[in-house]
Design a protein that fits this description.
Largest sheet: none
Distance between the termini: 38 Å
Strand content: under 5%
Oligomer: single chain
Number of strands: 0
Number of domains: 1
Shape: globular
């Protein structure tokens, strides 16, 4: 059942990523706004999800594999980020490639921490 939950969640996450990519296309060597947005929002949601399911509720055993590994794992795309860094470098945009290479993991980590912290803050506020 865990594999099924991950697979079904992955389908949903990958379809959402694909749709956002269609809405925000970029040419070869162009700045990949869609991938950056996907990775930032996905990491923010991972931060929220992990606090909710590990600190605030006791979810069904398939919630974490479905949402965390499946949906958000299928939605985020650090493999595309790597390919896009190389595409920018190949297009001669070395500054942009270096900026994207450094910016993405830093902002993604910050987004995850922000999602977790904001969720804890809201949970404390609601408990008042």
């Amino acid at each position: 059942m865990i594999v099924v939950a991950v697979a079904l969640g992955g389908i949903l996450g990958a379809e959402a990523r694909y749709g956002l990519g269609l809405l925000m296309p970029h040419g070869p060597g162009g700045w990949p706004w869609a991938t950056l947005l996907i990775n930032i929002t996905g990491c923010l949601l991972i931060g929220v999800l992990m606090v909710v399911i590990t600190e605030l509720v006791e979810p069904h055993r398939l919630v974490r594999p479905f949402l965390g590994v499946g949906v958000l794992g299928g939605y985020t795309t650090f493999s595309s980020y790597t390919v896009e860094v190389l595409a920018q470098a190949d297009a001669g945009r070395l500054g942009a490639a270096a900026a994207y290479f450094v910016l993405t993991p830093l902002v993604a980590l910050l987004a995850c921490a922000t999602g977790a912290a904001a969720t804890r803050l809201v949970a404390r506020w609601v408990d008042r």
